[in-house]
Amino acid sequence: MPKNLIILISILVVAAIASLARPGAIARFPSEKEVEKMIPTQVGSFVSDAGPEGPGYSYKMEEATYNTLRPLGIIARIYRDGPAIFDAVVIPAERTSSIHDPRDCFTRQGWDIVDIGSIDVPTRAMGEVPFRLMQMRSTEGAGNRLALFSYRGPTKFYNVVRDLQQAQLNYALKTLKSEHVIAYRFIDMTQRATKEDLVAFAAKFLDATHGRGNGFLR
Predict the structure, then answer these.
(1) pTM
(2) Other CB atoms closer than 10 Å to residue 207's CB: what's the count?
């Protein structure tokens, strides 16, 4: 059976289990605005830019992104500390079908993936968190970028989408519950940061947000 078909069936099974587990009930997920308020505008010595939408958003993703992913929200921030500038994006979703591999977007937006590998981000709150570290080169003269991304599942983090999808299915089969998932992405915007700099910022961000919203940000 094709892998994409297996994934689709798994997602449908999870949705069916969730509906059976809560007959007549509608899950209450926070709105994008509520999630935005859970994320601090200051992370250590880094302070986020305020955009046209207010202090909680440095910028807004295009409407097409919302229509494609159908997430609970997309919170996009630019954090600065002197010459250091990092982009942080948090995408909470009700189901794994809203979570994607960011490499798909980057390649369509004019970036070549030069290198990619796994790396652990050391946090105080959760220990070692698995991420994917990606080096990109612009095909349009915008230079190079370092990026990190990972996905929070029902009980822990995963750095591969299919592993997240399998974990979500296993959790639903075991507990008859469906938990939300969260995608995290961090990018250096200066072309000067090392991977250690980016990892250190990601660790600070995860520690600063962990447990907020009565545990919604896990």
Answers:
(1) 0.87
(2) 16
